[in-house]
Design a protein that fits this description.
Distance between the termini: 32 Å
Number of helices: 10
Number of strands: 13
Strand order of the largest sheet: 3-2-1-12-4-5
Order of helices and strands: EEEHEHEHHHHHEEHHEEHEEEE
Largest sheet: 6 strands, mixed
Helix content: 25-40%
Radius of gyration: 22 Å
Structural class: alpha+beta
Length: about 325
């Protein structure tokens, strides 16, 4: 059973799947929120009877104002969802800002540099050029406290700076994975692997290649009761026994596999074989707003809409480890 409406939203493409009918449309990113509202209205979305789930990247896909409006809506309504790599970058910048401000002289330095950048921005100076020149002019050790490859005053920084404490708490509460046992499905932003690519699919260490051991307290169950229990145990092992799935960065950024390693590059033929294999096992995946057997990353912001009465609405949130508050982000695209 699949949701009756699945929305897949990005800056340039929208797919609205209703009763297996796909209608593609192009629209500018600045209208993302209005299109989201219109789509929900078109689908007769009712928060009293329906469940709305987003699959991450709820910000930076539009203007800062629109991103903050979207975040405010999701946070104020406590919409269920999972983190995206852009959400992760905002979380990390907010943590960095709080840390810098807690240090003696840190808030004064950050405010001073920010005011200087605002003046240069009004003159039409590009951020990358100004940062390069400012670091050469200012030998302050504060610059060394910015992690490598992080861009001060980027859009992620600006949203992290402007969002409220309640919105920050909402972002931090988002899990990396939602598991829906009744639908035998996982919901993630980027992807999950059904097996370790460093071993063959039917290797005895692969979670879907072996029958898990039944807990002793359930040894007297009938066959009809045993099967769903074993399948649930097997599916959870996909999260725990595939080493690549235990790395938060992978779940947020996975696009393809290269030489057995997770990559953000464009998907390759390996994931096609993963798609065929996982579909043959009947274990569906939901990622980036699209239901399928593939675990490739489309890296978009998406919404899933379903009636509350469906078994899909009973899910398990897999919380991210505390270390993900400072996980090095990769949100350049």
């Amino acid at each position: 059973m699949i949701p009756n409406v699945v929305f897949s939203l990005s800056a340039t493409f929208m797919a609205c799947s209703i009763s297996s009918c796909t209608i593609p449309t192009s629209f500018p990113s600045c209208l993302l929120n209005s299109f989201t509202s219109n789509l929900l209205e078109k689908a007769s979305y009712d928060p009293k009877s329906d469940v709305l789930i987003h699959v991450g990247d709820v910000m930076t896909k539009a203007s800062r104002k629109q991103s903050l409006k979207m975040l405010a809506y999701l946070a104020s309504n406590n919409i269920t969802g999972v983190r995206g790599n852009h959400d992760q970058a905002v979380i990390e910048w907010r943590g960095w800002i709080s840390w810098i401000r807690s240090l003696p002289g840190g808030a004064r330095w950050l405010n001073r540099v920010y005011l200087k950048w605002r003046e240069e921005k009004c003159r039409g100076t590009k951020l990358n050029l100004w940062l390069h020149q400012e670091k050469q002019r200012d030998s302050s050790p504060w610059w060394n406290k910015i992690p490598k490859d992080w861009k001060l005053f980027s859009e992620h920084f600006n949203i992290a700076h402007d969002m409220t404490d309640e919105q920050y708490d909402y972002l931090r509460s988002l899990p990396l994975t939602l598991y829906v046992p009744s639908a035998h499905a996982f919901i993630v932003h980027a992807g999950l692997l059904p097996s370790n690519p460093n071993h063959r699919f039917n290797h005895p260490t692969q979670p879907l290649a072996r029958i898990p051991s039944l807990p002793s307290r359930n040894s007297t169950l009938s066959r009809n009761d045993t099967y769903p229990l074993l399948r649930g145990l097997q599916e959870l092992r996909v999260l725990n026994d595939v080493p690549q799935n235990t790395v938060p960065w992978n779940v947020l950024n996975m696009r393809s596999i290269h030489n057995g390693k997770i990559s953000r590059q464009v998907a390759n033929s390996f994931l096609l074989s993963v798609y065929c294999y996982i579909c043959s096992l009947g274990v569906p995946m939901v990622n980036s707003g699209r239901m399928s057997g593939t675990m490739t990353c489309l890296d978009v912001m998406g919404l899933i809409f379903m009636p509350r009465t469906w078994p899909w609405t009973r899910y398990i949130a897999i919380p991210p480890p505390l270390s993900t508050d400072t996980l090095h982000h990769a949100a350049s695209t």
